[in-house]
Specification:
207 residues, alpha+beta, Cathepsin B, Chain A, two-stranded antiparallel ribbon, two-stranded antiparallel sheet, 34% helix
Length: 207
């Protein structure tokens, strides 16, 4: 009987697999990691440790130590997005000065850009003063610098506010600083469409 040649094909190999599993096992049970693998997710796998020192009335320097995992998926921009000329949709540069309001400026300009790209308007500017005043004013009051009541915040939280509450146009009340007690939110040009309602944002802007 003629012996046929044996063909061996390496389907997978890694010099780091066991060392990586050992590292993972130091922080989370491998059984938990196997459950994550069953989800067949794609993305960057991270293990994070969060430490937060807490001072309680009768417990000095207690530390909360939490370890958790997360998957971060990085989307690749399509070629048509990379090749597009976004220059016309960029408004004039704004200077936040001594304020912590860059998140509010970016959010307002995102609304402008999205509605411009969707051809609902042509570069209308929206009011970042409103975002500073009403998204999370309690945080501003906790600042140590009593000369300022602005604060740092994520753009996502600001966009959620816009979707729920709408946002006024910049001409309604130009930015004039951060205040401990801002004036009430008044839609001065509501009959002229002086704000974006939540329904229009969801329907037309997909925020």
């Amino acid at each position: 009987m003629e012996e046929l040649p044996i063909k061996v094909e390496i389907l997978y190999e890694s010099d780091q697999l066991f060392s990586e599993l050992k590292k993972i096992g130091q922080y989370i049970p491998l059984s938990t990691f196997l459950e994550i693998l069953k989800l067949k997710l794609d993305g960057k796998f991270e293990i994070l440790r969060v430490k937060n020192k807490v001072v309680k009335p009768k417990v000095e320097g207690e530390t909360i130590d939490v370890v958790y995992t997360r998957l971060r998926k990085h989307q690749v921009l399509p070629d048509e997005t990379k090749k597009a000329d976004w220059g016309p949709f960029n408004g004039p540069m704004k200077d936040q000065g001594e304020h912590d309001i860059c998140w509010a400026i970016v959010t307002a300009e995102l609304v402008t850009a999205i509605r411009w790209i969707k051809q609902h308007e042509n570069g209308t500017e929206y009011l970042y003063q409103e975002l500073v005043d009403f998204v999370f004013p309690e945080k501003g009051k906790l600042q140590k610098n009593k000369a300022h009541f602005c604060y740092k915040l994520s753009i996502v939280k600001a966009l959620r506010y816009v979707v729920r509450q709408g946002i006024q146009k910049a001409l309604d009340r130009p930015f004039d600083g951060c205040k401990e007690f801002p004036p009430p939110r008044v839609l001065s040009n509501s009959h002229l469409g002086g704000y974006i309602c939540a329904a229009k944002l969801i329907q037309h802007c997909y925020l």
